[in-house]
Design goal:
single chain; 263 residues; alpha/beta; Rossmann fold; 2 domains; 8 helices; binds nicotinamide-adenine-dinucleotide
Length: 263
């Protein structure tokens, strides 16, 4: 049976691990050729090798990229073009999160959060849009968050960046609506990826004044479905948005929150 993304070329930022890796695996299963682009270049190559080992037909490559730097973004898209073909599907999953009260949010934390989560999305989109417009087909999928829909204390920089991603998504969707290029956002709730490592768990424990070992259970208990999202839950939405079936959907932000957010 043909996959829903047969022979499409996709570039996934932040694809070395976590949600980006889950999306890469689903896209490969759907027949796409995938460039895994990550600041961790070795991680990107390892993830690509892992995917190739899982299926003989798999065309996956690892590409180093720093999404905050225009030159690096240009090189990553060029390398993908040379090795796989023109980028037809862009997934912006590279991200950074630091939980801190406003008094503890340094300019470095603010700048880094906005650079990776928002400027990175802008630079990646700017690089791939011309070829998508020219071919008359393209899909852009941006990882926002439930923190892009609703304020969350101790997440000022992160919320600002993720609300910003939704604004960028809507503006670009309008701009490209007549070009066959759709632009949508996906807003996960809690996904226990490496992002929820010991440092973030400790920061969250401080925010709630609770023991670090209680954090994951507490977060899960607040979700109506009483479970965190899996990377597969998020990847399923991304695969649909990247497919031909989603041709009439643009400028939307899809919650993958188990019922936590409903707007
Ligand atoms: N995990 C969650 O609970 C959750 C919830 C909502 C939204 N999100 C968003 O989903 C996306 C993926 O999250 P995740 O949990 O997989 O995160 P993660 O921390 O596990 O992975 C992020 C990846 O981005 C890469 N990266 C960081 N800076 C980069 C840069 N400058 N250039 C290129 N790559 C860079 C990292 O190397 C890493 O491989 C992020 O945008 C995140 O904000 C995550």
């Amino acid at each position: 049976m043909r996959g829903m993304l047969e022979n499409r070329v996709a570039l996934i930022t932040g694809g070395a691990r976590g949600i980006g890796k889950g999306i890469a695996a689903r896209f490969v299963a759907e027949g796409a050729r995938v460039a895994i682009a990550d600041l961790n270049g070795e991680g990107a190559r390892n993830t690509a090798a892992e995917l190739r080992a899982s299926s003989e037909a798999c065309r996956a490559i690892g590409v180093p990229v720093d999404v905050t730097a225009a030159d690096s973004v240009r090189r990553a898209v060029e390398e993908t073009r040379t090795q796989l073909g023109e980028v037809e599907i862009l997934v912006n999953s590279a991200g950074f999160s630091k939980i801190a009260r406003i008094e503890d949010t340094t300019e470095e934390i603010w700048d880094r959060t906005l650079a990776i989560n928002l400027k990175g999305v802008f630079l990646m989109c700017r690089e791939v849009v011309p070829a998508m417009k020219q071919s008359g087909w393209g899909r852009i999928i941006n990882l926002s968050s439930q923190s892009g829909k609703k304020g969350n204390s101790s997440y000022t920089a992160y919320c600002a960046s993720k609300f910003g991603v939704i604004g960028l998504t809507q503006a670009l969707a309008q701009e490209l609506a007549e070009d066959g290029v759709t632009v949508n956002a996906v807003c996960p709730g809690v996904v226990f990826t490496e992002m929820w490592g010991p440092e973030q768990v400790a920061d969250y424990a401080r925010k709630r004044n609770m023991a670090p070992e209680d954090v994951k259970e507490y977060l899960t208990s607040k979700i109506p479905m009483k479970r965190a999202a899996t990377v597969e839950d998020v990847a399923a939405v991304a695969a649909f948005l990247a497919s031909d079936d989603a041709a009439y959907l643009t400028g939307q932000s899809y919650n993958v929150t188990g019922g936590t957010i409903m707007h």
